[in-house]
Each structure stands twice: as structure tokens, then as C-alpha cells.
User: What shape does this take?
Amino acid sequence: MLESVTPQRPLILGSTSRYRRELVERLNLPFTTAAPDVDETPAPGEAPGHLALRLALAKAHAVAALHPDAIVIGSDQVSDLNGQPMGKPLVHERAVQQLRSMRGQTVMFHTAVAVVCKATGFEQSDIAVIKTVFRDLTDDEIERYLRAEQPYDCAGSAKSEGLGISLLDAIHSDDPTALIGLPMIRTCRMVRAAGIQLP
Assistant: This one.
């Protein structure tokens, strides 16, 4: 007699980030993406880590409200220079300002992940903190990097998985993909706990 297998719940990544989508694709699981409708404005005086965790949960809950049977992953990343959050630059001029302010500095990246399933009441969240040390970049290096990679949709104006690695002296993290945008070790732990089978 064949054993009955309980089908897994749908998995949804509550993000339109291509970087996060590519990371979840590593799991070889079927999943879809959905854009969370969340106001990402920081509260007055809100610490970068608190902001990242609050937004990751808000994004997961926003998508879960529309897909209550699904297991939803939400995530957010905030870069932190001396306690001040830095978001996505969006335009070249702001990216230049960000990289100038970070040269020769240690910058913390707070990457939060939340996994939520409304139907089961499951909710877990965690944050990975990545310490990055930027080289003492020249204005010419900054300009050449930005023209080459155009990382205007990345918090902190650099992509460590691409040419942005050349801007750094060191990266310290216990979850290597967190700097790209999603801490996959933590994500795997949470989706397993939510009921999804992984190898």
C-alpha cells in the first residue's frame, strides 16, 4: 500500500528583488514571487537593525494576508554607517555620496528574514549582521565602479557578488549570502520549521 504524502504548502518569496529570487532558486523548490505593499519609511530614530527586522516581518505578513495557505518569505536589508541607516541610492549622484562616506569605514549590513504562514500561525524571524570594511576608495575608483555596475538598487551602493567585491578589504558574517540580500542559512532553518522539506 502506498503511503499518502501530504503536499507541501506553496512557497512565496515576498519580494521583487532579482537577487533574492536567485538565492531562493538555489533550493530547487517551486516558488512564486509577490510584491509586498509595505511603506519602508524608517520611524524617527529607528535603529537600522530594528528597521530591517520590522520591514521583513511586515513584507511577509502583507503577502501572507493575500495568500493565507502559503509559506511566505519576507526580507529586508539596511546598511548602517555609524548608526545611520542608508537605503538604496536609486540615482548615480546619491550612490557617489554613499560610497564617498563609506571609504575607509566599517559598514554594518543588517539583513533580516521572516517566514510566515497565516493558516498555521507560523512566524519566525531573525537577522544577520554583516561587517564590511571598505577600502579607502578614490573618487575615480568610485566613478568607474558605479559606471560599470550601476548598483543603484542595492543598499550601500555596492554588489559584493559582482565587481563591488573590489571595493572591500574584508567581510565578516556567519551567513555568507546575507550581504547579497537574503541569509540563506537562516532562511533554510525557518522554511524547514514551517514544514517544507529540504535535503
User: Anything to note?
Assistant: The chain has a mean pLDDT of 93. Helices lie at 18-25, 48-66, 92-102, 139-149, 184-194. Residues 82 and 107 are 7 Å apart (CA to CA). Strands lie at 11-13, 32-33, 71-81, 84-86, 106-117, 122-134, 168-172.
